[in-house]
Design brief:
The structure is a single chain. Strands 1-4-3-2-5-6 form a 6-stranded mixed beta sheet, with helices on both faces. It has helices at residues 14-25, 69-75, 87-98, 108-114, 122-130, 150-161, 163-176, 180-190, 215-235, 245-254, 259-263, 269-288, 302-322, 326-329, 332-341, 346-352, 357-371; strands spanning 9-11, 29-36, 46-52, 57-60, 81-84, 105-107. The chain has 17 helices and 6 strands. The protein has 379 residues and is α/β, with parallel strands linked by helices.
Length: 379
């Protein structure tokens, strides 16, 4: 990493993008980050893509650029390693907004987790490893504003400027501790993480406390959620900045019929003035509509729950030996599918764990031993 920090290059035209592509393509490794406007818009979108090479920092403006296809070729190029910190959120946005696919990733946060670091934030790691202090006060900034203020530009470039240096230090430590292969399995699985988190429940079902409502109150809550979506879409604001879940739950419980009764649900005068009519209409519709039903999530069989509990206990003990979080030993997804299928041989287990051969080799026999719940019969 070049110790001299040149000004970052702002890229917001097709010509400027074409001019930096040769530098990006010739790199064996690229540091990457994104910034989004999730706290400031109804529909979140990626507002900035940062790349750093050993000598340059680039800030790419996807709000101005309409064709980022050639960046997709970089993300899918197996010859170029893409280094992120906490990669999952970035991949979700990049895939959602641009359809990118990914190979050859390194996640410095996952590397730190595999090593058992207690503080895994980028600022904490840079301070601990290199005594570099980064102010994270702009994490919740509105990245969709243009022009982007200079403090935000400086902040964005620092999220990738030191990342390659951190990556190399963490790889060395992973290899010294014999954990490189363990981390590499997670880096490989990161490439597909964007497709793994779909919540099939209705919006009202995700509100904490809805389980205590009557069927009619839940139906009203459902209509309130729909009304809030329409308001947020019109205002282009995130849901929680319109009306938070707690207030919707309160309205569903009290079932107000006029503005005065809305006050009993703890809405402010401003909220009542702006959204009161829409909320009361939602209450009225919900009071007459067919009752909603919860999503049919089938309860696992007792045998599956028994296997899952056994694997959880084993995983916790194995994690304590390495001083890491439990999911570093075995992911929740793998744990669940093993419990569902109940493999009875190493061959069956290898089919489930084909994407994590290191774990299979080191933990396969232990997992099978844990799953052996057949009672020993006395002769």
């Amino acid at each position: 990493m070049n110790s001299v920090m040149h000004p970052p290059r702002w890229v917001d035209t097709a010509t400027a993008l074409r001019s930096i592509l040769p530098d990006l393509r010739r790199q064996a490794r690229l540091a990457v980050d994104t910034e989004a406007n999730s706290l400031h818009a109804y529909r979140e979108r990626v507002c900035l893509i940062q790349f750093s090479t050993p000598n340059n920092d680039y800030l790419i403006d996807p709000l101005k650029l309409h064709d980022l296809t050639e960046l997709g070729d970089i993300f899918s190029n197996p010859q170029i390693e893409k280094v992120f910190h906490a990669v999952e959120y970035d991949l979700v946005g990049l895939q959602r907004d641009f359809g990118f696919t990914f190979v050859n990733l390194f996640d410095t946060m996952q590397a730190a987790r595999t090593l058992g670091y207690k503080s895994q934030g980028l600022g904490s790691l840079l301070a601990e490893k290199f005594n570099i202090i980064i102010d994270k006060k702009y994490q919740k900034a509105d990245w969709g504003q243009r022009p982007l203020p200079e403090p935000l530009i400086d902040y964005a470039r620092l999220d990738t400027h030191y990342l390659l240096m951190l990556r190399d230090a963490l790889e060395l430590e992973l290899r010294e501790k014999g954990r490189w292969e363990l981390a590499a399995e997670d880096f490989n699985r990161c490439c597909h993480v964007a497709n793994n988190h779909t919540d099939l429940r209705e919006r009202w079902e995700r509100i904490n406390g809805q389980q205590d409502l009557t069927p009619r109150q839940r139906t009203i809550l459902h209509e309130l959620c729909l009304a809030r979506e329409r308001i947020a879409d019109k205002l282009d604001r995130p849901l929680f900045k319109v009306i938070d879940d707690r207030l919707l739950l309160s309205i569903a419980k009290t079932i107000p019929h006029n503005f005065e009764e809305l006050k009993l649900a703890h809405l402010t005068d401003r909220q009542i003035d702006r959204f009161g009519r829409a909320l009361l209409d939602a209450v009225r519709v919900g009071s007459e509509a067919p009752l909603v039903k919860s999503s049919n999530i089938e309860r696992p069989h007792d045998a599956v729950l028994n296997r899952l509990n056994r694997i959880k206990q084993w995983r916790k003990a194995a994690a304590e030996k390495l001083a890491v979080d439990s999911d570093v030993i075995l992911s929740r997804a793998h744990m669940q599918i093993i419990a569902d299928k109940g493999p009875r041989s190493l061959e069956e287990l290898s089919g489930i764990m084909k994407d994590c051969p290191w774990r299979l080799e080191h933990y396969g026999a232990e997992i099978l031993h844990v799953l052996d719940v057949r009672p020993m019969l006395e002769s």
